[in-house]
Write a sequence for this structure.
């Protein structure tokens, strides 16, 4: 890739990356060299990827619609579906394509723009959302020249999968727009934690404060957000000073207040021919400032991407240091140096053996996840069953029961679909907490779990029938139904005779008895129907709970096996590396003095090269940070934001 400015930071960055790549090759660490080779592949993409992220209801989808000039393009006030993102890029026409990941491979399906919410929104069609990975939208707008905007699920959504999809998208991001709302609460802890993860992957970050049009105190809210961010960064750096390099730049990131509502109003005035008013509203909307930053990211794409390469290079250099130090010790004239290095390696191997023991113990503990899943499902299903039990008790007539039973299957299905997201959220949190603790105990990175757009298992709809015997006119219990009614009829008949005479007794007593009989029979019929419905509901919900539990237990088992395999691979890789170092150190004593001197010199040379490259890497990172900070800045003489 040809890069303008042969002496600029980007050109020097590429030369620097090549030097680190070559050093890793000379050290026989092709595995580390591949890390940098993978980063280099991103330079071939000439489209700048800008991820738009934030919590739900922060206004990001409407913001994107306004930026591209299509107010109804993306679903607003409905979160992006789990395991799905929306891509907006430039194309000759307005089109939409759904990308699915199926067992037989990726599948692409053109759809109408109007149907995007069905496939990409949590309010859409559950069947259509299944297996959807992304929806790719093209439209011909100048803003997207060299840009690709990526709308992601909310980082606080009901499923952990939402957040993980957004974090994964940061791997391909050149810049991040993080949205907060002027009409909502200040930035929350989970948002700050997401930003900390983002800062490790992305250097170009802009905070966008949306919905400022109706907020009288958006400036004070913005200052409170900045204060919370500053407190979070200060505490994180105090706990781990090594995080300063990635977290402190967040404090210098620009904040841009914007209003999609004012921008849309400006466009409406422009169409009416009221240009001056349109210009005023547009300036107040803040969109011009935001678009200037977006264009800056497109023009300075290489600077934004450089941070990723530098971070990878510094990681490679750190890994190469141990081998170089071993060679220096092995070539030392003092046998104590080799002995000391061997002792260090043996200590690490002993620690590795202890980790292997903890891995086995942890794997046993992980097997109990399935039992906890069953408890979560049972509790959540019981929560949604109880309102139905309560509602059934309020039904007093057969007509009410019939109407209720007609609506019951669809109602229960909706309730189950709603609670499914919460159940998956609970299970993912449980699995993530348990498996992260397992990984952390073994010195591994946190695990990333997602339900992969997991649809609710296919469930049989509730089928409830009342007590048919209650509807049989010939089914009469003489003792239970007739005699009490007759007795009460005679009693009321006697009262009627006292008031109306014998005729009153003859006419009233049978009528009252019949009415009491029919009323009692109708009441007991309703009660039996209520009992039948409750029993059927309990049976049906028990079946539902079993099906959900089995589905989620399989999901958790897959995660557990994956994490444990990763742990095994990591332990094996670390053991192999340590055993290789031990073998090299043990053979050092058998080498000739000349060979030991050459090994020592080689190790010293590499340590010197590593130290020099590490220093240059940190300097480059600072230069790139300054270059990124300048992207989108207002030219001289232009009012700032």
């Amino acid at each position: 890739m040809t890069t303008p400015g042969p002496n600029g930071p980007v050109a020097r960055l590429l030369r620097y990356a090549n030097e680190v790549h070559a050093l890793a090759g000379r050290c026989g660490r092709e595995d580390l060299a591949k890390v940098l080779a993978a980063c280099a592949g991103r330079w071939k993409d000439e489209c700048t990827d800008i991820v738009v992220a934030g919590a739900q209801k922060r206004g990001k989808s409407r913001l994107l619609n306004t930026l591209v000039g299509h107010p109804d393009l993306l679903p607003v006030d409905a979160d992006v579906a789990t395991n799905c993102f929306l891509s907006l890029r430039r194309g000759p026409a307005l089109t939409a394509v759904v990308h699915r990941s199926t067992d037989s491979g990726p599948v692409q399906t053109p759809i109408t723009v109007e149907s995007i919410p069905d496939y990409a929104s949590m309010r859409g069609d559950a069947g259509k959302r299944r297996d959807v990975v992304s929806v790719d939208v093209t439209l011909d707008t100048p803003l997207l020249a060299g840009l690709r905007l990526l709308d992601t699920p909310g980082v606080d959504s009901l499923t952990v999968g939402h957040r993980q999809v957004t974090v994964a998208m940061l791997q391909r991001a050149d810049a991040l727009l993080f949205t907060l709302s002027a009409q909502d609460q200040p930035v929350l802890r989970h948002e700050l934690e997401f930003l900390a993860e983002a800062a490790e992957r992305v250097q170009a970050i802009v905070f966008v404060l949306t919905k400022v049009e109706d907020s009288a105190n958006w400036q004070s809210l913005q200052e409170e957000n900045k204060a919370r961010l500053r407190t979070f960064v200060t505490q994180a750096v105090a706990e781990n000073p090594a995080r300063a390099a990635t977290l402190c730049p967040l404090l210098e990131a620009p904040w841009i207040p914007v209003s999609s509502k004012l921008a849309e109003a400006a466009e409406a005035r422009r169409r009416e021919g009221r240009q001056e008013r349109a210009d005023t509203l547009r300036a107040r909307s803040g969109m011009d400032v935001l678009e200037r930053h977006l264009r800056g990211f497109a023009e300075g794409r290489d600077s934004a991407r450089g941070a990723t390469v530098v971070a990878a290079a510094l990681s490679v250099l750190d890994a190469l240091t141990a081998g170089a130090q071993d060679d220096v010790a092995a070539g030392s004239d003092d046998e104590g140096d080799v002995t000391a290095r061997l002792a260090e390696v043996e200590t690490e191997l002993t620690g590795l053996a202890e980790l292997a023991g903890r891995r086995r113990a942890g794997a046993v503990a992980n097997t109990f996840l399935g039992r906890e899943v069953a408890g979560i499902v049972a509790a959540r299903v019981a929560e949604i069953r109880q309102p139905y039990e309560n509602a059934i008790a309020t039904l007093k007539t057969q007509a009410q029961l019939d109407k209720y039973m007609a609506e019951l299957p669809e109602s229960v299905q909706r309730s189950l679909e709603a609670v499914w997201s919460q159940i998956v959220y609970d299970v993912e949190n449980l699995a993530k907490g348990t498996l992260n603790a397992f990984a952390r105990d073994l010195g591994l990175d946190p695990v990333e779990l997602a339900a992969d757009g997991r649809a609710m298992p296919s469930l049989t709809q509730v089928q409830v029938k009342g007590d048919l015997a209650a509807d049989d006119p010939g089914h009469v219990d003489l003792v239970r139904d007739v005699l009490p009614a007759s007795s009460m009829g005679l009693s009321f008949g006697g009262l009627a005779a006292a008031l109306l005479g014998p005729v009153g007794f003859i006419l009233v007593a049978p009528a009252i008895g019949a009415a009491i009989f029919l009323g009692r029979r109708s009441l007991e019929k309703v009660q039996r129907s209520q009992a039948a419905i409750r029993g059927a509901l309990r049976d049906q919900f028990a079946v539902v709970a079993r099906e959900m539990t089995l589905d989620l237990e399989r999901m958790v088992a897959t995660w557990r096996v994956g994490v444990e395999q990763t742990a095994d691979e990591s332990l094996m890789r670390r053991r192999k590396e340590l055993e290789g170092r031990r073998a090299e150190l043990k053979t050092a004593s058998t080498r000739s003095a000349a060979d030991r001197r050459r090994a020592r010199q080689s190790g010293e040379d590499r340590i010197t090269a590593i130290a020099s490259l590490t220093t240059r890497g940190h300097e480059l990172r600072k230069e790139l940070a300054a270059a990124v900070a300048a992207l989108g800045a207002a030219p001289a003489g232009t009012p700032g934001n």
Observations:
- The CA atoms of residues 384 and 415 lie 7 Å apart.
- Confidence is low (pLDDT under 50) at residues 157-162, 460-519, 636-641.
